[in-house]
């Protein structure tokens, strides 16, 4: 089932800056993509946190690979060009989410099955959509070729038909969106429409000590943002460059790994521990 509220995570671009090789960068981003899907995250914001010239490149790398991961396998060649950043995408783990069906035979599909597709042709008041079957499905609407859509299968004839479905109508988890931000996280959060913002830090209050307060705020919210810092700089240091404090942008500052046994906790490790605890309260 999908979450009753929108869950957004904000991740720093520097999560891959300590890794020199593209293969290892790709592997780490793959771990993050899996965590986003496991915990039903709706959106990942990649924000610039390092003033170095590598930041913009890292933002784009993370955005591209996470977006590639979220795209069903049968559409990847149509939607993504071959670029150097995709050299090692073959090592990425599959998401195995409901919007990534593995069956390509129309005869094995179920009526009313929902699939993501790509408009390949429009003519005569109809559009043909590639949804991963041997043949495209027909939708009785004129759509722009190249547009990504979600459809519901209506029949399994030789010329199968389908109808468009809005993402908000789907009752199961349907993947995540990725936003590459050029705006610093403090300024971004000042403009956010989210009802609740939770920042994470090793200097925060142990999460279990304030779980009741978080749960109350969580249940009153339609959208929640979780802010993560990097291993080299916590969210406080990142915000301080904008002359901001955590309290200026977030309602809670929590530590999801109290009494950590290592000097640092990697961002993907903090992501796993924080989302695990929040998953319990919902």
Which properties best describe this structure?
single chain, 282 residues, alpha/beta, Alpha/beta knot, OB fold (Dihydrolipoamide Acetyltransferase, E2P), 2 domains, five-stranded antiparallel β-sheet, 27% helix, globular
How do you describe this structure in short?
This protein has helices spanning 22-38, 55-70, 76-79, 185-190, 211-219, 235-240, 246-249, 267-281, and strands at residues 6-12, 43-47, 114-123, 126-130, 137-139, 148-153, 162-164, 177-180, 196-206, 223-227, 252-255.
List the helices and strands and how they pair.
Layout: E1 6-12, H1 22-38, E2 43-47, H2 55-70, H3 76-79, E3 114-123, E4 126-130, E5 137-139, E6 148-153, E7 162-164, E8 177-180, H4 185-190, E9 196-206, H5 211-219, E10 223-227, H6 235-240, H7 246-249, E11 252-255, H8 267-281
Task: Write up what this structure looks like.
The structure is a single chain. By secondary structure, the protein is α/β, with parallel strands linked by helices. It folds into 2 domains: 6-96 and 177-281, SPOUT methyltransferase, trefoil knot domain (Alpha/beta knot, 3-Layer(aba) Sandwich); 106-169, Beta Barrel (OB fold (Dihydrolipoamide Acetyltransferase, E2P)). Helix content is 27%, strand content 22%. It contains 8 helices and 11 strands. The protein has helices at 22-38, 55-70, 76-79, 185-190, 211-219, 235-240, 246-249, 267-281; strands at 6-12, 43-47, 114-123, 126-130, 137-139, 148-153, 162-164, 177-180, 196-206, 223-227, 252-255. The strands form 2 sheets. Strands 8-2-1-10-9-11 form a 6-stranded parallel sheet. A 5-stranded antiparallel sheet has the order 5-4-3-6-7, with no helix packed on it. Helix 5 (211-219) links the parallel strand 9 and strand 10 (223-227). Helix 1 packs across helix 2 (55-70). The longest helix has 17 residues, at 22-38. The radius of gyration is 21 Å and the shape is globular. The mean pLDDT is 95.
């Amino acid at each position: 089932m999908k979450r009753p509220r929108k869950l957004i995570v904000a991740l720093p671009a520097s999560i891959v800056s300590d890794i020199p090789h593209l293969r290892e960068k790709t592997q780490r981003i793959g771990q993050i993509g899996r965590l986003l899907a496991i915990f039903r995250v709706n959106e990942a914001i990649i924000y610039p946190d390092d003033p170095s010239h590598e930041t913009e490149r890292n933002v784009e790398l993370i955005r591209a690979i996470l977006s590639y991961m979220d795209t069903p396998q049968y559409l990847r060649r149509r939607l993504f060009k071959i670029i150097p950043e995709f050299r090692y995408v073959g090592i990425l783990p599959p998401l195995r989410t409901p919007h990534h069906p593995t069956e390509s035979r129309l005869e094995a599909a179920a009526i009313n099955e929902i699939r993501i597709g790509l408009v390949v042709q429009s003519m005569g008041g109809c559009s043909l959509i590639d949804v991963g079957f041997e043949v495209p499905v027909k939708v009785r609407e004129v759509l722009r070729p190249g547009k990504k859509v979600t459809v519901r299968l209506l029949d399994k004839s030789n010329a199968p038909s389908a109808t468009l479905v809005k993402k908000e109508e789907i009752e199961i988890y349907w993947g995540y969106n990725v936003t590459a931000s050029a705006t610093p996280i403090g300024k971004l959060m000042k403009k956010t429409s989210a009802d609740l913002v939770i920042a994470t830090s090793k200097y925060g209050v142990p999460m279990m000590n304030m779980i009741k307060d978080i749960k109350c705020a969580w249940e009153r919210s339609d959208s929640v943002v979780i802010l993560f810092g990097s291993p080299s700089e916590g969210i406080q240091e990142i915000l301080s460059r904008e002359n901001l404090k955590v309290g200026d942008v977030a309602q809670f500052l929590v530590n999801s790994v109290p009494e950590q046994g290592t000097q640092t906790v990697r961002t993907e490790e903090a992501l796993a521990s924080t989302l695990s605890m929040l998953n319990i309260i919902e």
